[in-house]
Specification:
The protein has 3 helices and 2 strands; from the N terminus they run H-H-H-E-E. Helix 2 packs across helix 3. The protein is elongated. The protein has about 110 residues and is mainly alpha-helical. The two termini are about 55 Å apart. Among the domains are: about 40 residues; about 35 residues. The longest helix is centred in the N-terminal third of the chain and has 36 residues. The protein is about 70% helix and about 5% strand. A two-stranded antiparallel ribbon has the order 1-2.
Length: about 110
Amino acid sequence: MRGKLMFISGLAAGFVLGSRAGREKYEEIRASAKKVWEHPTVQEAAGVAQAQANKLYAEGKDKLNSSKLGEMMHSAETPASGGSNARPAKVTASSDSMSGSNSAGKTY
């Protein structure tokens, strides 16, 4: 019994000391990462990367819209009545894989 008590005490002390040391190291790493992130050179590079990502996104969107698939998607979104509040047609599946039932209501 005394051995178990000593073992549990040792585990508790190790946990407390380890978590304190771990937390201090975590805070140190976090502070250095924040310092690096706030550096003007890093911020400039992040801004350039964001601008390039936005440009690539816009180019990809334009290419998709001008492709046959984009034209099909665009025509599916526009109703024959020409209303401005058009919503895409809802697609339904014949079975629901999450609930385990199909459209007839059978449960598997």
